[in-house]
Amino acid sequence: MTTQQPVLNEHHKQEFPPMHTAEHILNGTMVKMFGCQRAVGAHVERTKSKLDYDFPRALTPQEIAQVEARVNAVIAADLPVTCTYATQAEVASRFDLGRLPEGATQAVRIVSVGDYDHCLCAGTHVEHTAQIGHFRISSTRYAAGRLRIVFRLDR
Ligand SMILES: [Zn+2]
Predict the structure, then answer these.
(1) What per-residue confidence (pLDDT) applies to 56?
(2) InterPro entries of this UniProt entry (predicted)?
């Protein structure tokens, strides 16, 4: 692995870095708490974002509160968000390369939120997690194996 920046696929989505970084932390939290996969669908916008998970049931109010608390603890810990670069072959055992976009470059970028979460991403992130603000789940919905979590960031 190297910290030299190779050429990556262009990232077309214009993202709001605090929201998008919160998306990473929520994904990492869901994987750790429930052993599920990272979100299978995402609508990340400036004021409100929605992530959809393959999930067997609805979350209880207690679980929703726990997810919020864990995400906010990561934000409050003010972890650095850092990037390292590698090739697809080097990271094949650590990450699901099936999630990369069609025609992805051999060079990939690993985005790390401290030691809490690592994923392959070409998006735009905050530099440290305290820049995200306060994370709040405004609603959840469950239907037919899909759990949707809607969240907002409060300053
Ligand atoms: Zn990202």
Answers:
(1) 97
(2) Ala-tRNA_ligase, Thr/Ala-tRNA-synth_IIc_edit, tRNA_SAD
